[in-house]
Design brief:
The protein has 615 residues and is α/β, with parallel strands linked by helices. Helix content is 45%, strand content 17%. Among the domains are: 156 residues, 2-enoyl-CoA Hydratase, Chain A, domain 1 (Alpha-Beta Complex), CATH 3.90.226; 270 residues, 2-enoyl-CoA Hydratase, Chain A, domain 1 (Alpha-Beta Complex). Helix 7 crosses helix 8, helix 13 runs parallel beside helix 14 and helix 17 crosses helix 18. It is globular and about 85 Å long. The relative contact order is 0.13. It comes from Thauera chlorobenzoica.
Length: 615
C-alpha cells in the first residue's frame, strides 16, 4: 500500500517535471523564433515611401543635441528624470532644407508635444531653416496640446499655429537661480579653498557664498537680457506682433488670465500667439485639407523626418569636410561619448588631419569647458591641423564658454549664433578641506614629511599657506596664458582681452562686437566658410565620432524597431515623452551635478569651466 502511494507520487512528480520542461522548452523556442523574426524584420523591412504632394512632419522627441549619444541601457529603467531621447540638430536641418527644394514635399508640419528643449541657439537655427522653407511658398503648420517656451518658440515660425482648447502657451521669460552651499558647508565644518582670477568667474561661488555676487548678478542680467531679446524679437516677427506686445503678455499674464476667466488658451488666442484651437481629430482633418489623403487610407499624405532622411540621395564626393562635435564637459583622458575627452578628441582631430580625403575641419562646440589640460591638448591638435594646410573653422552652438572658448582659438575663424553663450575667459581651482569634520568625529591625522609641501594637499589636513600661495600663483599664470592665447588668436593686445575677460559671459552677438568671434551664423554658414577656405565646391560632409560597439549599435536599432507600432523603448508605450514630476527633476539635477563633479580630473586641478547653461 505504502509502496504504491510512493510509486504514484513519483510518477506524478516525474510527469509534472516533464510537462514543466516541455513548457519551458516551448517558451524558449517561441521566444527565440520571435527574436529571430524581429531581427529579420528590423533589418529587412521595406524602406519608407514618399507619395507626391506629401507633408514633411517634424516631431522632435526629447532634446535637440549636436550629436546623439546612446545612453547606458540601465538609464531606461530609471523612473522619472531620465531623458526621453535625443535628436541631432543636423538631421533636422538636413530634412527641412532638402524638403524646401523637393517637389514631392508641399508642406511642413511641426508637432512639438514631445520636444523637451535643446538650447536657444539650436532652436533658433532650426527655426531659421523653417523660415527658409516657408519663404519658398510652401505652407508651414504647427500644433501643440500645450506649448512650453521652447516648443512655442519653434512653432511660432509657422504660418498657422494650432493649440488644444484646454491647452496653454507658457511664456515665462528667462531666469537663472543657483544653489549656494556655504551655510551647509560651514555647519559641517568643511572649508572650500578657491583660487581664481576674474571677478566674474562665478563657478566657485556656490561653495563660498550664500547668495549671488554683485558681479555675477550684473553679468547674468545682461546675458539673460540679450538672450530674451533674441527670443522675443523672433516670436514677435513670426506672429507679426510688436516686441512690446510679447513683453506685455509675459509680464501681464495674471491680468490676461483674469480677462479670459482663467482660460489660458483663450488668453493666448487674444494675445495673437495662436491662430485657432483644434482637437486631434480636427488637426487630422486640417492636414488632409492641406495635402490630401495618403493612398489607400484616410490619413494625410505625410512622411516623418527620419524616414525622409533615409530617402535623401546623398551623393558622395572625393573631397570631405569633417564636422567634429565637442559636446559636453571637457575632461582628461579617453571616453567614448557624452563628454569631450581630451585624448579621444585629439585622436579624432588627428585622424581627420591625416585623412587625405578631408580637406577642411569644422569644430562644432557645445561645451561650458572643463579641464584646462585637455582644452590645451585639443587646441594644439587644431593648430597642427592648420599648419598641415587644412582650414579649421569653429562653430559655436548653445554654449562655447571658458574651456569651450579656449579650444575655439585653435581655429582660423570663429562663428557663433546671436544666442550663443560664450566668453567666460578665466580660470579657477578648488580645494576642499575636511580637517574640522574629522576633528569633530574624534579622528586625528598625523605623520611626517620630507619637505614643507609634501602632503600639503591632503584634504584631511588644514591647507598649508605656502601650498595655497603656490596654487594661486599657478592660477594667475594660467589666466595670463589664457589671455595670451586669445590675444594671439584674435590679433588683440593682452590688455584688450583682459577688459572683456575676467570670467564674464557674453552672448554671441555681444562677443562679435567685442572681437571675440568673427561672424554670426549657424553650422551651415560655418561649413560653407570652411569649404571656401579649402577651395571646395563639391564635397561630402562627414561626422567623425568616437565609435560605438556592435552591441550599442544593435541596441539603438532595436530601440527604434517598435516606432512603426507606436512603441519606443526609450520613451515608453505609445511613444510619449516622459513627464517627470518635481521630485524626479530635483533629484535628477542633484545626481547630474554630482556626476559632473566626479568627472573633474584635470591632472593639475586647473579648470576652465563656466557656470552657465543655454536657456
Amino acid at each position: 500500500m505504502l509502496r504504491a502511494l510512493f510509486r504514484f507520487l513519483f510518477t506524478a512528480l516525474r510527469t509534472f517535471v516533464r510537462m514543466l520542461d516541455l513548457l519551458l522548452r516551448g517558451a524558449f523556442y517561441a521566444l527565440l523564433i520571435f527574436a529571430i523574426g524581429a531581427v529579420l524584420a528590423l533589418f529587412f523591412r521595406p524602406g519608407p515611401a514618399l507619395a507626391p504632394g506629401s507633408a514633411l512632419v517634424l516631431r522632435p522627441v526629447g532634446t535637440i543635441v549636436e550629436q546623439a549619444v546612446l545612453e547606458p541601457p540601465l538609464v531606461l529603467l530609471r523612473a522619472g528624470g531620465a531623458p526621453a531621447g535625443q535628436v541631432a540638430l543636423a538631421d533636422l536641418l538636413e530634412a527641412v532644407r532638402s524638403a524646401r527644394d523637393d517637389e514631392r514635399i508641399t508642406a511642413l508640419v511641426i508637432e512639438t508635444d514631445e520636444l523637451l528643449g535643446g538650447g536657444l541657439s539650436k532652436l533658433a537655427e532650426l527655426r531659421a531653416a523653417i523660415l527658409d522653407f516657408k519663404a519658398s511658398g510652401k505652407p508651414v503648420l504647427a500644433r501643440g496640446e500645450r506649448f512650453t517656451q521652447a516648443q512655442y518658440y519653434l512653432a511660432s515660425a509657422a504660418d498657422e499655429v494650432h493649440l488644444a482648447a484646454d491647452g496653454f502657451v507658457l511664456l515665462r521669460g528667462l531666469a537663472r537661480y543657483g544653489t549656494y552651499f556655504k551655510g551647509a558647508l560651514d555647519t559641517l565644518g568643511i572649508k572650500v579653498h578657491v583660487f581664481r582670477v576674474g571677478e566674474y568667474k562665478s563657478f566657485s561661488e556656490p561653495f563660498t557664498r550664500s547668495d549671488m555676487s554683485d558681479e555675477d548678478r550684473e553679468s547674468t542680467r545682461d546675458l539673460l537680457g540679450g538672450l530674451w531679446q533674441v527670443m522675443r524679437d523672433d516670436i514677435a516677427a513670426g506672429r507679426k506682433l510688436a516686441p512690446e506686445a510679447v513683453d506685455a503678455h509675459v509680464h501681464g499674464l495674471r491680468a490676461a488670465l483674469a480677462a479670459s476667466g482663467g482660460d489660458a488658451a483663450q488668453a493666448a488666442l487674444a494675445a495673437g500667439l495662436v491662430d485657432r484651437f483644434s482637437s486631434r481629430d480636427e488637426w487630422r482633418v486640417r492636414l488632409v485639407e492641406a495635402v490630401g489623403t495618403a493612398p489607400g487610407g484616410k490619413e494625410a499624405r505625410s512622411i516623418d523626418a527620419g524616414d525622409y532622411l533615409a530617402l535623401i540621395d546623398r551623393k558622395g564626393a572625393d573631397a570631405r569636410v569633417a564636422v567634429i562635435v565637442a559636446q559636453g564637459t571637457i575632461v582628461d583622458g579617453m571616453e567614448a561619448g557624452g563628454v569631450v575627452a581630451g585624448d579621444t578628441f585629439a585622436r579624432l582631430i588627428r585622424d581627420a588631419r591625416e585623412d587625405e580625403r578631408v580637406k577642411a575641419v569644422v569644430l562644432r562646440i557645445d561645451s561650458p569647458g572643463g579641464s584646462a589640460w585637455a582644452s590645451e591638448l585639443i587646441r594644439r591638435e587644431l593648430e597642427l591641423t592648420r599648419r598641415a594646410g587644412k582650414p579649421v573653422v569653429a562653430s559655436m552652438s548653445s554654449v562655447a564658454a571658458s574651456g569651450g572658448y579656449w579650444i575655439a582659438t585653435g581655429a582660423d575663424e570663429i562663428w557663433a549664433a546671436p544666442a550663443t553663450v560664450t566668453g567666460s575667459i578665466g580660470i579657477f581651482g578648488l580645494f576642499p578641506e575636511f580637517s574640522e569634520p574629522l576633528r569633530r568625529l574624534g579622528i586625528g591625522v598625523d605623520g611626517v614629511a620630507t619637505a614643507p609641501l609634501a602632503g600639503a594637499l591632503d584634504p584631511r589636513r588644514p591647507l598649508d599657506p605656502d601650498a595655497a600661495a603656490a596654487m594661486q600663483l599657478g592660477i594667475e599664470h594660467g589666466y595670463r596664458r589664457f589671455l595670451e592665447t586669445v590675444a594671439k588668436a584674435r590679433d588683440m593686445r593682452v590688455a584688450e582681452v583682459d577688459e572683456v575677460a575676467r570670467g564674464r559671459v557674453w552672448t554671441g552677438a555681444a562677443a562679435a562686437e567685442l572681437g571675440l568671434v568673427d561672424h554670426l551664423g549657424g553650422l551651415t554658414a560655418a561649413v560653407a566658410a570652411a569649404a571656401r577656405r579649402a577651395g571646395l565646391e563639391d564635397y561630402e560632409l562627414v561626422w567623425p565620432a568616437a565609435g560605438e560597439s556592435i552591441e550599442q549599435r544593435l541596441l539603438r536599432r532595436l530601440m527604434r524597431a517598435g516606432e512603426p507600432f507606436g512603441i519606443d523603448l526609450g520613451r515608453g508605450l505609445g511613444g510619449h515623452a516622459a513627464n517627470p514630476g518635481a521630485f524626479a527633476l530635483l533629484f535628477g539635477q542633484l545626481q547630474a551635478s554630482a556626476a559632473g563633479l566626479a568627472r573633474w580630473n584635470d591632472p593639475q586641478h586647473l579648470y576652465l569651466h563656466c557656470l552657465c547653461e543655454a536657456p
